Amino acid sequence: MSKTNHINRIPRAKGIDMAAFYSPKECARKAKHIVFSAENERIIEEFLTILGMKDRFAEHEVPIPNKLVMFGPPGTGKTLTASYVADRLNLPLVLVRLDAIIHSHLGETSTNVRKLFEYARVNPCVLFLDEFDAIARTRESNDEVKEMARVVNTLLQCLDEFEGDSICIAATNLETQLDHAIWRRFDTKMNYAMPDAPSRQLYINKLVGQFEHQANVKHYMCQRLEGCSFADVEQIILKAKRKAIITSSPLHEQLISDAYNEYMPRLLGT
Ligand SMILES: Nc1ncnc2c1ncn2[C@@H]1O[C@H](COP(=O)(O)OP(=O)(O)OP(=O)(O)O)[C@@H](O)[C@H]1O
Ligand SMILES: [Mg+2]
């Protein structure tokens, strides 16, 4: 089924054209191979478990969490997690890049933020604010842009009033740039990092799947791809698979090594 068909079935609100919409089914397809660190897996499972026990929490008058912030380096699964949550909750994903909102209409940024939260109030969804630091930078560092302080205040207000069946997820590479007041509004926080060896191995196993490969090549990949993000690992393995297909050979060490050298991953700290 085409992407447009999925998207068109989701109710769209006038005035939030800055958002991209994805159905739970599309999200499930994207997040199929997601790998979490043990800690993040625990956090996300607890978050989802609580959402599945709303009545019990209401009985005890304990508010349920509905705001999640994720931070960490590029290509480690933040955006992917938003898809994962949307799939697990069977809610559409409404994805907004906050940097895009600001750059296009500075004067209307606050209005746009309000419209987004108003949409999420009326239509149950996972409202995903990507590149969150674009708006939520500390107010001090933005005194040259007065508008930004106003936007941060709007955001604070929207987060405080956020309730109902929607979930708000924010992601940033630069958590140190986030305004403290905003940071505090998020009840759940997830720290993303480059994969360690066991996570890399798990991801490699998932990506290689049934693809014909030489014995030991997965172990070699795990060592060779040390320091790479999940996104890098994925791109390098895809490149190697293409090479394997055009040369009618199974995946082997040389193909991985060539793919790595051609892809030239930027390793953290280099
Ligand atoms: N933890 C992960 N598990 C499985 N695949 C991953 C993971 N992280 C990244 N990927 C792969 O890399 C792609 C890009 O990841 P994603 O967009 O989630 O990164 P990000 O952390 O949001 O990066 P950025 O900070 O650049 O936005 C994903 O679509 C997926 O294919
Ligand atoms: Mg992202």
From TrEMBL:
Domain (AAA+ ATPase) ranges = 64-196
* Classification via InterPro entries: 26S_Proteasome_ATPase, AAA+_ATPase, ATPase_AAA_core, P-loop_NTPase
Which SUPFAM superfamilies does this one have? P-loop containing nucleoside triphosphate hydrolases
Alphabetic keyword roster:
ATP-binding, Nucleotide-binding
ATP-binding as a keyword? yes
Q: Which Pfam families match?
A: AAA
**UniProt entry tagged with the keyword Coiled coil:** no
Gene Ontology molecular functions: ATP binding; ATP hydrolysis activity
Family, per the entry? Belongs to the AAA ATPase family.
Query: Could you identify this protein by its name?
Result: AAA+ superfamily predicted ATPase
- The organism is Paenibacillus amylolyticus
Task: Read off the lineage from the record.
Answer: Bacteria, Bacillati, Bacillota, Bacilli, Bacillales
